[in-house]
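A note from the maintainers: we've had questions about how concatenated examples are separated. There is no special marker in the raw files; a new sequence line simply starts the next protein. For clarity in this README we add a label.
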Amino acid sequence: MSHHIVDFIDIYFTYPDGKQAVNGITCRINHGESVGIVGANGAGKSSLLMLLTGILLPAKGEIRVGETPVTKKTLSVIRQKIGFSFQDPDDQLFMTTVYDDVAFGPRNYGIDEPEVKKRVMKALETVGAVHLKDRAPYKLSGGEKRAAAIAAVLSLEPDILVMDEPTAALDPKARRRLMNLLKGFLHTKIIATHDLDMVLEICERTIVLKEGRVVCDGLSPEILNDEELLEQCGLEKPLALQNCPVCGSGKLYGSLLEGTGK
């Protein structure tokens, strides 16, 4: 399924104020992979996702989704393949009710209303937000907005799920629901986040960015246990890989590496 493959080919992007956000990134994300993109604030994570979805366009280089280049002319095709959840759900919610926000994408692509309703209710049920369907988005809590925004993405039934800080503002129960949802999404997942424990659990591969460049790309358990690398990139080991402060035990890492052949 080549249409699920994402290629970044020597990508550069500079904002109008002169900040170079992406500085020569080349990588491939294959069909079915679950990839975490991590780095300190300003490393280029959000910019890379916005370039992938055509919100921004590179100054140099090419991005391809399958055989389709990401250009102004192909955006409608690209956005039918990719579901993008913004870092700030307020950037995504603009209708008078949650139901209409979740229905907006399918309606925009001409899907008939019975199918729209089916998709909306399924998406809201998946994120545990059916009770919010008649609420105005501006009256929701941060976590409720996040759930509604993710439902709006799921209603499009995308081949590739792209999420920017998806666990931000979620309480523990909502975070766990999201984690279970992501585990059940069998297509390609690309997740930019500071939540390294989520990356460790959800993503078999991690790409580390620093100053708009890829500094490391590999198996998540190995990268997320490399304390020196993470410190150089302004990150800390996930709590799950940190030794117990009482007994000093760090047994979890060994069990994670068993499946990697290391």
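[label: protein 2]
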Amino acid sequence: MTKFYETSDVFEYTPESLLEEYFSVVRYHVDRLAARIPRSVETGDLVNAGVVGLLEGAARFDPNRDIDFKTFISYRVNGAIIDFLRSNDWLPRSLRGSASEFQKVMLLLEGRLGRPAQEEEIAAELGLTLEEYRKRLQQVQQMSLVYFDDLPSFSEEEADSVLDMVACDSSQEPEHQTGLIEFVELLAEAVTRLPAKEKIILTLYYYEEFTMKEVALIMNLTESRVSQIHSQLVLRLRALMHLDDD
């Protein structure tokens, strides 16, 4: 029988008992992501990927690090589901091209203005009306799923715990761990340069883990408007971090 650990406590269990106790973690991440991906992606496939992440994460958890077992498992489950989606490359290349264009304009305007560009300024630079720009943001909203959702937190204050989480993941090669740590450090720096409204949405959605609907209620905006701003903040972060898919 295999031993698994929760902080300093050691307990033994079968894969069945592990699933009984922590399957709710898999279900949580599947439900959270399912609403934001095409219907062609089978929910059962996401569940299977999450279960693999749960079992592999439990086997690789290092009890000697000051990381909560359930928190680590949640990180591994979500990461496994995201890896499954990435491997299937379900995002149309035309949307990647639009996103890349938006990112370049955002970075260009920030350099020119010395501050984050407002959406009216971005739209004008793209030769679009504000309504057209917002519609295109709505089209690329799913891109955030494969860009940042595999990180447990985005808040600047939580950067150290994210780095600890990455370091605790012994399944990664040292070179890959180094790359992830550099990515998180770049992300933390980019977050500080976001406009206030985008920071609020980022904190509420990723750190506080409210749904888009709940964020909309808190900010007194429509859910579609919050979704548009969310898409913009993801593209802005990618621009600031000089990430591109072309």
